[in-house]
Design a protein that fits this description.
By secondary structure, this protein is α/β, with parallel strands linked by helices. Helix content is 39%, strand content 21%. It contains 15 helices and 22 strands. The protein has helices spanning 49-68, 71-87, 89-100, 104-127, 160-173, 188-199, 216-222, 236-248, 271-279, 302-314, 334-349, 379-382, 398-406, 421-430, 463-470; strands at 5-8, 11-14, 17-19, 22-24, 29-33, 40-45, 134-136, 139-147, 151-154, 178-181, 207-209, 229-233, 253-256, 262-265, 294-298, 353-356, 369-372, 389-395, 413-417, 435-438, 457-458, 471-478. It has a seven-stranded mixed beta sheet, with helices on both faces. Helix 9 links the parallel strand 14 and strand 15. Helix 1 (49-68) packs across helix 7 (216-222) and helix 9 (271-279) crosses helix 10. It is globular.
């Protein structure tokens, strides 16, 4: 075993950066710890401006060749990457569960298959991309989608590889090269994926992975003058810093920044369905940006809803995410656990009541929590907790429900539970959100636009919207005259 590799349940992962098709070590490292039991997984190469600059140079050098690769060949290579991912689903699932604490069964059945789907979808979408030529007073207009150049992608820790490939796949399909900076708390599957993609035939320099701790590597990447696109998923303060850096070089940036979404439960809803939707918000230990953490329930059914919710949520099994019977695993990091508990304890001190939970468990586990008796302007209602913590408020009518739902600085998603189609249409039309689910949750199609309003983000991902961002669109106007006839 090399000093630059670690083993996770029998799966070997290289701990160095992946730059220009080669492994690159750093002078310094940082420790990667499993949230399952606090065990040290290994020492990870810690990138600096040196590694960031090398990765951008590699991406820039590889760009002309990859951009000139015919779309059909790019699509073939991306499908080969998807094939290779599917062969390593078990390895990827094991590594990511140990690294970020999400359920192993979810990785096996949903998350890692979605990684492969990301590549297949955007490979196929690339081949269907384009607009018909159109006429302007006899002149022909032709729209083309030109690759923009090296792209910096900075991704979060709650679904590390799936969310990374959500960006990598369209960026590569568009003909760009990529520098990925994975989250410092969950870097391992990005490194493993780099090997998988290279073995599948992705040319050297087309994908680069720079691992970092703190802001040093990320700051060097987003401020580099040779970068042509930046896509970031994470916090609002970090996005503001990135936006300022991108502005210096006039680099387009896309941000997905989380939310404080609401689930609106009306008295005419299927109550069992509504309770199921509410309990589902504890998925991934509450570490889901789309989660409807604010439960808004019509007054007439609030007591019965709370009773049924309490019964169902209390039956959730919290424990080791490698166990097939576990419903909720640990939170990712001690700092995140402290943040979650801080929100809850301040809310309780301000007069909130914990219907369930409201306390830490052993290790990095936080009990599923529901808080009531909270004011609309309370911190716990207005700020993203990113843990298994929900609040419950009541409303009298549609107007109040919509007012409460929209009364935050976020606008990522919303969920509506109702048995009245007319009400569903009225309410969804008035909600400020990038995605609204009606009587369902987390149904996500890559054809649809994804992103947030207000402080939940800038831009949209998915389908043609992804190519809009990762390409420079060019319109060529050709006159019908001025041609020489050469026979």
């Amino acid at each position: 075993m090399s000093e630059h590799t670690l083993t996770v349940a029998g799966v070997t992962v290289d701990t160095r950066h992946w730059i220009g098709g080669e492994r690159v070590a750093s002078a310094d490292t940082f420790v990667d710890v499993s949230p399952i039991d606090g065990s040290v997984l290994g020492e990870i190469a810690r990138g600096t401006e040196t590694e960031a600059s090398a990765a951008v140079a590699a991406a820039r050098a590889a760009f002309p060749g990859w951009a000139a690769t015919p779309p059909a060949e790019r699509a073939r290579i991306l499908h080969a990457v998807a094939d290779a991912v599917e062969k390593r689903i078990e390895d990827l699932s094991i590594v990511e569960t140990h690294d970020n604490g999400a359920l192993l069964r979810s990785h096996r059945r949903g998350v890692m298959p979605r990684v492969a789907h990301n590549f297949r979808f955007f490979a196929d979408w690339l081949l269907g991309l384009g607009h018909d030529d159109f006429d302007t007073r006899g002149h022909t207009n032709h729209v083309s989608w030109d690759p923009a150049g090296p792209c910096v992608l900075i991704t979060p820790w709650n679904a590390p590889l799936m969310l990374a490939t959500w960006k990598i796949a369209p960026a590569l399909a568009a003909g760009n090269t990529v520098i990925l900076k994975p989250a410092e708390w969950s870097p391992l599957t990005a490194s493993l994926f780099a090997d998988i993609a290279a073995e599948a035939g992705l040319p050297a320099g087309v994908l680069n992975v720079v691992q970092g701790y703190g802001a040093e590597a990320g700051s060097a990447l987003v401020s580099h003058p040779d970068v042509r696109r930046i896509s970031f998923t994470g916090s609002v303060p970090t996005a503001k810093t990135i936006a300022a850096a991108a502005a210096v070089n006039l680099v387009p940036a896309s941000f997905e920044l989380g939310g404080k979404s609401a689930l609106l439960v009306f008295a005419d809803a299927d109550l069992d369905l509504a309770v199921d939707l509410a309990v589902e918000q504890y998925d991934n230990a509450g570490q889901v940006c789309l989660a409807a953490t604010r439960i808004l329930v019509e007054e007439a059914i609030a007591e019965e809803f709370t009773r049924r919710f309490t019964e169902k949520a209390s039956a959730l099994r919290q424990g080791d995410p490698r166990d097939e019977t576990t419903d909720i695993g640990p939170n990712i990091h001690p700092r995140q656990l402290e943040k979650i508990d801080g929100f809850v304890q301040r809310a309780l001190a301000a007069g909130a009541r914990a219907v369930i939970g409201g306390r830490r468990g052993e290790g990095q586990y936080y009990a599923p929590t529901l808080l009531t008796d909270v004011a609309q302007d309370a911190e716990i209602v207005q700020e993203e907790v990113f843990g298994p913590v929900l609040t419950l408020q009541t409303f009298a009518d549609e107007d109040e429900a919509v007012r409460l739902a929209n009364d935050t600085r976020f606008g990522l998603a919303a969920t509506v539970a109702t048995g009245d189609r007319g009400r569903a249409e009225r309410v969804t039309d008035r909600l400020v959100a990038g995605t609204v689910w009606v009587n369902c949750f987390f149904v996500r199609d890559l054809q649809a636009p994804f992103g947030g309003s207000r402080h939940s983000g800038v831009g949209r991902e998915g389908g043609t919207w992804s190519f809009d961002f990762y390409c420079d669109l060019k319109n060529t106007v050709t006159a019908p005259k001025g041609w020489r006839d050469h026979g």
